Amino acid sequence: MDFEADGRFGNKRVHNRLGPAPGAASSSSSTKVCIHWRAGRCNRFPCPFLHSELPEAATTKRPNQRDGPGGHVWRNPNSGGGGRGGGGFNKWGRGPGGTDGGVRHKVPDRPCKFFLAGDCTYGEKCRYPHTYCMSNSITLLTPLQGHEKVVTGIALPTGSDKLYSGSKDGTVRLWDCQTGQCAGVLPVGGEVGCMISEGPWLFVGIPDAVKVWNMQTQAEMNLTGPTGQVYALAIGNELLFAATQDGRILAWRFSTVTNCFEPAASLTGHQLAVVSLIVGGMRLYSGSMDKTIRVRTENLCIVVHTFLGTVNVVGFDACIRS
């Protein structure tokens, strides 16, 4: 089947994508390059615009264009071809052979989701940054190195210029927030299971006890009662809660008369170690290795909900918070 003499095939106009024919009169559309083709995503067929660059001789300078030092050089970002099936830029902004053609591309504004999941196969060639946080206002100051085992808790007491970190190496380290240097090491006599701060108070959970320091008065206390490791600590309703390895939740209340923490309650119900505690909405939420989450009312004696699940230790805290 032949093309008609007037350039029509059926009711659709056929355009010469390689540029105007020599000596032929060009319409306004046939002398323009398709901007979607330049971006590598034109899906029109036929397309009324050119899928090739105009000859260099046909390219004119703008009145304010200057070449050389101190001037601006106007150039086509995709010079050299491209488009569908051509040798243009792919979705990564790279040209044939993996080159970028000297074009600066906008850096993606989000990290690689596969990197966050731990299974990105592109490595250094990945289009998206391999980082856990992207922000113009948050930058890494310095890594704090010194603990010999996993860090299980960090805290910054109110009014203190020291950051505290606890580790399974049995120490609590003090870090200068200005210099990032370790300002002290405090052995606590056992693996640190958790650490929180409330006002000037610092609470550290260790096997069979909770150690307490007041950063303003330098007072030190040792709260006994837990059996096994203390995995989580929480504060709410003027009570300090500790989640223990034997499945109990212990509570203390600070007494202004004796100026110390006194036992207030011992909550049972979980069959295995309690590993997460959250206080919110006049409720106490506890997650355990027995694969349940228990919700207690303000008086702590009534369990209003018990959720069954198959979440692991890491998932308990996120499940409770949600």
Automatic annotation (TrEMBL):
WD repeats lie at residues 144-185. Residues 79-101 have a biased composition (Gly residues). Residues 28-54, 106-133 form the C3H1-type domain. Residues 19-30 have a biased composition (Low complexity). Transmembrane segments: none annotated. InterPro entries: WD40/YVTN_repeat-like_dom_sf (IPR015943), WD40_repeat_dom_sf (IPR036322), WD40_rpt (IPR001680), WDR86-like (IPR044715), Znf-CCCH_4 (IPR041367), Znf_CCCH (IPR000571), Znf_CCCH_sf (IPR036855). Keywords: DNA-binding, Metal-binding, WD repeat, Zinc, Zinc-finger. The keyword Zinc applies. A zinc finger (C3H1-type) spans 28-54, 106-133. Residues 1-30, 59-104 are annotated as: Disordered. PANTHER family: PTHR44489, ZINC FINGER CCCH DOMAIN-CONTAINING PROTEIN 63. This is C3H1-type domain-containing protein.
